[in-house]
Structure formats: C-alpha cells, structure tokens
Design brief:
CATH superfamily: Divalent-metal-dependent TIM barrel enzymes
Shape: globular
CATH topology: TIM Barrel
Distance between the termini: 28 Å
Strand order of the largest sheet: 1-2-3-4-5-6-7-10
Radius of gyration: 17 Å
Largest sheet: 8 strands, parallel, barrel
Strand content: 5-15%
Structural class: alpha/beta
Number of domains: 1
Oligomer: single chain
Order of helices and strands: EHEHEHEHEHEHHEEEHEH
CATH architecture: Alpha-Beta Barrel
CATH class: Alpha Beta
Helix content: 25-40%
Length: about 280
C-alpha cells in the first residue's frame, strides 16, 4: 500500500498532548498547554462496559472538548486481545472492542488505540491474523481504529514489521478496513527490535498511514522486549531518532511518560527544541 507522505512536523506545526486522567481530559490538556489528550474510558485492566467518568457524561465531554479545541483520543483496555485463539478472551474482546468504539464515538474521539494482541504459539499465528480480519469485519467502526505496535512477545501480532504486514494483508479485505489506521509507539518499536531511523518509512510502506505517534523514551535497551516508558531524553533512545520519528510521521503526538503536568510540559519542550 502506498500513500502520500504528509508534510514533516516542525516545532510550529506540532500537535502534542499526553495520556491523562479519565475524569477530565480537557482540563488536563489545558493544564499542560496541549492540543490533545489521550485517556481510558473505563478500567484499563477490566472487562466491564465503559462508562464516561466526566461530569455530565459523553455529551458534556464532547461539547467541552469542542469548545476548548482539544482533540480526544481513547486508548482501549490492555486486556483486549482480538487475535487470540482462546475463545474465553477473544469473544469478550470483540464485545469490548465494539463497546469502546461506541464510547469513543460518543465523546467525539479522533481515534481508538488498540494493541495488536498476541497468540500462544507460532502454530497459532495464521489464525491470529485471520482473527484480526474477523474482528474488523464484525465491528461497526465509528471512529478510526488505530492498531498500535507492541514491545515484546515472540507471538505478538504487531511487534515486528513483518507481523504488522501480515495483519494488514489479513484485514485489507475486511469491511470497514478504510477506518483502520496505525499508532506508532517509539518505546515499543525500539524495545521490540525495530530501527527508529527507518521505522516511519517502513510502517508507511505497509499501512499507507501513521495516524498517531506515542512518543516515549525507553528505560531498556534496543530489542529488550521490555515495555517500560520513561521521559524524553532520560532513556536509551537517541534524541535525534525520537525527533526524527515525529518529524517524519507528520502525525499528532501523545507522550505516555511518567509524571503530571509539569513533567509532560518538560517533555513537550524537549521535543520542540529538537524539531
């Protein structure tokens, strides 16, 4: 798949925010001087139907975000795994995925971020890719569904570029595929063994698009398989590589780094200084 390369991101065109508390992502963005927020709707480690915690519910949050000019992104729960061959996880995952899509649409989110998931063995990989196709086919996708690369696991669907390509091959014929995009996480890519100097070009060659960047430094070395984020400039990823991903992707940026508003503002400033 090929697509037009977006204009490079610069310090003046950067759209950036952070993963923030779920009760008031608009206030959290304004506190940080950010243009966007990412948050969970519901328990990130649970299976319950998502409930918007904002005072006044989804309509009030949507109205507040629109009034403030804040773009919202929702991150799906970590437990969700539509690729697995385990029926007791896959079937509830499909149900939860639809519920999360519905909730994200209700708050006017620009996208729903979903981890690529995993299977239990090499023998299950092909079924895992096909399970992704079935999940796309059977979900009414109301907002862009952004599949995110992950850091570890030999049987992960989206750790390595070759696996991402096989996911895209599998889902490319599914109904609703045009609403599927990609979220590139720098910590996950680095820890997963993908060269950040070329990952933007290679991902775009596979998916045709990068819709969101999770810009995180890594506490652990290249190809460690460890998903441990740290603040920008404090980890093992070269600063020029982090800035290069943002510049090349031309997409909005979310930092999922430790700390509250002051720490995130420092991350924003660190990035702007290098763009």
């Amino acid at each position: 798949m090929t697509a037009a390369t977006p204009e490079p991101t610069t310090a003046t065109t950067l759209r950036i925010g952070a993963h923030v508390r779920h009760d008031d992502p608009v206030a959290a963005a304004l506190e940080r001087g950010a243009e966007l927020s990412q948050f969970f709707i519901g328990d990130p480690q649970g299976w319950k139907k998502p409930v918007v915690a904002y005072d006044g519910g989804a309509p009030a949050l949507r109205a507040a975000a629109e009034e403030a000019g804040i773009a919202l992104y929702v991150h799906a729960p970590y437990v969700l795994n539509v690729a697995t061959t385990n029926n007791r996880i896959r079937i509830p995952s499909r149900k939860l995925l639809q519920q999360q899509v519905d909730a994200a649409a209700e708050v006017g989110a620009k996208g729903l971020v979903v981890h690529g998931g995993h299977v239990g063995s090499d023998a299950e990989l092909e079924e895992g890719f096909d399970n992704w196709r079935k999940a796309i086919d059977r979900t009414e996708i109301k907002v862009p569904l952004l599949i995110e690369n992950t850091a570890g696991g030999n049987h992960a669907m989206a750790r390595w570029l070759e696996r991402i390509a096989r996911v895209w091959d599998a889902i490319s014929g599914a109904e609703g595929f045009e609403q599927v995009g990609f979220c590139l996480d720098t910590c996950h890519a680095h820890a997963g063994g993908n060269d950040l100097t070329t990952v933007v070009e290679k991902v775009r060659a596979i998916t045709g698009r990068i819709d969101l960047v999770h810009l995180n430094d890594s506490r652990d070395p290249f190809d460690s398989g460890a998903d441990r984020h740290t603040n920008l400039g404090e980890g093992s990823i070269d600063a020029d590589q982090l800035a290069g991903v943002v510049r090349g992707a031309g997409a909005p940026v979310v930092v999922e780094t430790p700390g509250e508003a002051e720490a995130h503002q420092a991350d924003f400033a660190w990035l702007r200084a290098r763009l």
